[in-house]
Amino acid sequence: MQSTFKNMSNKVQTEDQSVTDFREYLRIKSVHPHPDNQGAVDYVLKHGEKLGLKTNTFTCVEGKPLALLTWEGTEPSLPSILLNSHYDVVPAVLESWNYDPFEAYKDENGNIYARGTQDMKSVGSQYLAAIRKLKESNFTPRRTIHLLYVPDEEIGGRDGMGLFVKTKDFADLNVGLALDEGLASPTEEFIVYYGERAPWWVRFKATGPTGHASRFIQNTALDKLLEVIRKAAEFRKEQFDTLQRGEHQCGMKLGDVTTINLTVLKSGVTSDGGKSYSYNVIPTEAEAGFDIRIPPTVNLPDFKKKLEEWASAEGVTFEFYNVPQMENHSSDITEDAKWWNILKKQWESKGMKVDAQIFPAATDSRYIRDLNIPAFGFSPMNHTPTLLHDHNEFLNEKVFLKGVEIYVDTIRTISSTERFEK
Questions:
Q1: Which residue of the set 88, 159, 180, 393 is catalytic?
Q2: Which of 148, 168, 175, 222 has fewest C-beta within 10 Å?
Q3: Is 88 a catalytic residue?
Q4: Which CATH number fits domain 198-320: 3.10.20.30, 3.20.20.330, 3.30.70.360, 3.50.50.60?
Q5: pLDDT tens for each residue of 258-290
Q6: The one catalytic residue among 152, 153, 180, 364
Q7: Catalytic residue flag (residue 153)
């Protein structure tokens, strides 16, 4: 199916309907801090109804709806397939973009520029396009297929997927396998993520004596905080060196090590309502905030003890800014892992080079894996620079359409499998 549109030179051009629908989705400003959640959900429900899917919405937190589209299989008692995506996107710095990030402008090379092209409205659109093609081919799934569109992933997902997985409504979906987002790959390979690093945002606070800055006052708040920062910097270097060695020796990836970055630093005595700093007064308080990403191979309670040791000096405290994960589950990719081997065999049968990795950041998949449900992050975008959250985020329409075909084959395969134990 094709549609027509006018480009910037006012010429009428033909465009695949899947691409037109994708661009329509991109124009919905589901962008933080004030996302048009209802607009995104209305779009999803409209397209689900066009496909003849059963539609439903759920709300765990007011103003943050989830949309569910369901294609019932011939054997609905079998564990179902969940195709998950989030519809919210991160802000875009307008002056840093070559095109309006919510226009979904397509250039002469077929590159579509918009916030969310890679992260991850592309995948949500590809699900819909793939289901349409499967229905047009008169395919009927054995297992029930659920398409879930959730809010808030970009701010932690706790009011979206985080709460939904705890409901009876989610349990009733009887999910046996979930697919979610991955990353674009600049190479021929398609990267599949079977786990991810736990995101910890931590805050260290230090207190100490004050006085005139012309004196050698000991054990100040900043002295104590700088010691914490020094320990964090040493640990960061150790992890960086491990990654550098591992990349050359055994193909280690970013998701295999722990990253720690100083992202917040506060101190100083202010006046004029915080407008001016007193450079000659030693502050009594200082604060440092860190973003830490921890791979599944690290024992999280033990790592917490490490942070507590950094805060062991008198007058130093440590706390979490977010709600920390204390368990971190990965999906099985061993030779005995049924779902992984079905997926891998399907992709490789199509000539795809697949590389299984730990996701370096965080996605909603972690909530699903916590329920012992296999979940894999997969965005079929190879030969594409990784631009999630970056300026001028784009996806080429040919890559998008190739991804639709990959999902057609993938969904057909995984929804046709017979019953087996996990």
A1: 88
A2: 168
A3: yes
A4: 3.30.70.360
A5: 999 999 999 999 887 778 999 999 999 999 999
A6: 153
A7: yes
